[in-house]
Structure formats: C-alpha cells, structure tokens
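ARCHIVE CARD
Drawer: 12
Card no.: 0347
Subject: one protein chain, sequence and derived structure
Cross-reference: see card 0346
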Amino acid sequence: MTLRSWTDKDIAPGGLDGLCVAVFGYGAQGRAHALNLRDSGVEAVVALRDGSPRGARAAADGMTVCAPAAAAQRADLVMLLVPDDAQPALYEEVLEGAMKPQAALVFAHGFNIHYRRISPRADLDVLLVAPKGIGDQVRSTYEAGAGVPGLVAVHQDASGDALARALAYASAVGHGRAVILGTTFADETETDLFGEQAVLCGGLTALAQAGFDTLVEAGYPPELAYFECLHEIKLIADLMYARGIAGMRESISTTAAYGDCTRGPRIIDAATRDTMRAILAEIRSGAFASELADELAAGRPALTRAQAEARAGALETVGRGLRRKMPFIGDESE
C-alpha cells in the first residue's frame, strides 16, 4: 500500500492565518514546534504550569508563556507535547473543559487516542502530526531551510477542515519541505511502538549488551568489547541512515560486508522473528498498553530496577570511563 503524500507545493499557504496554536510542553519537541510555528508567522503560545523550570527558557526565546487553562481557552489548535503518561490527566483536568468548540486537539504520537486513554469531546478535531525526527533535528533542519518528514492523520473531523488543519500545521513546522505522509492513529502508534521495542531501543540495547557479554566472557578486554559492540554502532547507523542497508554494505570492507550477509541471519533467526511477531501481537491487542499502565500505576518499579541494573553493569561502567576520554561525544549524563 502506497501512502498518500504531500509537500509544501500541495498545501495552500496561510492555513493557520488568524489562528492561535498552544504548544503544551517545552522540551526538545515542544521548543522546536513553538519556534518553527512562530518563525512561519503563526501565532503560537507555550502552555506551562506556574514554576515550570522551562518557563525561563521559553521566555528567553521570545515565546509568550501562558498557564495551561488560559492557553487552552485562547487556542484554536492545542498541540500536546508533554509525555504520553501525563496527557490523560491534562486533558481531563484542563483541556476538556477549557478548549473552544471545534478547536483542534493535536498529538505527535497516537498512543492515548488509539488505546482510548483519552476520549476527546465530540466537537473537537483530533489530529496527528508526528515528526520523524528528534526535536533538535526538527528545529535545526528548519533553520537550515529544510525539514524532517512528518506523518499526519485525522481521528475526528468536527470542523470539516481537519485534514487541512493537520497539513497546515505540518507545513508550518517544516515537514512539507521534505514530505508529509498520510497515515492513521493505529498504524502510527503500532509501528512506532514496535520499532522502539524490537529494533531501535529494546532490540539494539539487548544486542549490544549480549555482544559485550560474549566477548568479555571469552576473555577479551572490556574496553575492546565496548568499542566493538556499542561505540561503533553510530558509525554503521549513520551509514544506514544516509545510504540504506545496501549502501552501507558498499561502504564498508569486503570482510565486514561478507560477515554481515552471512552471520546476521544467524543472529536474527526464525526464533527471533517469531518473538518479534509476538511483540507486535501484544502491541496490536493492547496488552502492552495495559502492562505499561500497570507499571506506571505501581510507580515504575520494573523500569527503575532495569535502569539501576544497567547503570551498575560492566558495559556502562567501562563506557563511562571511555567516554570521559572522548569529550567530542558530549555525554550530558556524565
């Protein structure tokens, strides 16, 4: 199936003229969206609670900062860029009663709509505008005159102009300079979660840890194991990002390429693929969302324990020591 796509040339200019956008949250994505909207000529305000440590930065950036309820009352579009787990309470306690009729509630990830953690008022447009890049990249590419790709979807069209609003917003933050792809809340949510769990985060971290452990158990120095199984991931990831898998293989040595083609399928074998299918089934059924809700309600014990174990492990201990000798990396956690 080919997704519908748009660029700026397909989108009528001025789609947000006369409208106010309230950006809730001022982390990396919130800051990028607010500044890009402003620089595109859109009236944008930042919604932050009193005493928020991010308020000073938003004000220094020249943004208008409002209390959440005031921002919701003022806005024609509300963009939620606070963490997924904070959104249901924010909607219930502030947005549901404060938003204008036929205003748009915009998400950057479909989780809370897809899994029905939020049930928006029937008179609201409910939109998805999901950047395919981190916040710093959304801002830096915009400043350079380009943009990162983005996804759009409509869950609820109360105004009759929901898709046009989503496209206008996506264009204003820079996605139309690259490509905007049409999707659904379900597809964006399920593919995003699967990518995080099976490949980008869960799969990659487990693979790096297992490789490190295998070399150290075999008697190799942990410093060498760290470089080979974690540090150099960026080198290969950058090649894949720029050139794809085939292009990456053409850019590395013949020895490395042959090892990739012949040994990779032994690591990601039929059993691993079966596990990936099981993980996807948990995502699609809602079992993962329910499990996550239980974890958060209990105070995040499994996540806290796993992070503490990782911090204390040999891979992290060796890595911290080596990263101190490489200031060009800029490890902000040190």
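Annotation on reverse: The longest strand covers residues 125-131. The beta strands are 5-6, 20-24, 43-47, 64-66, 77-80, 104-107, 125-131, 150-156, 180-182.
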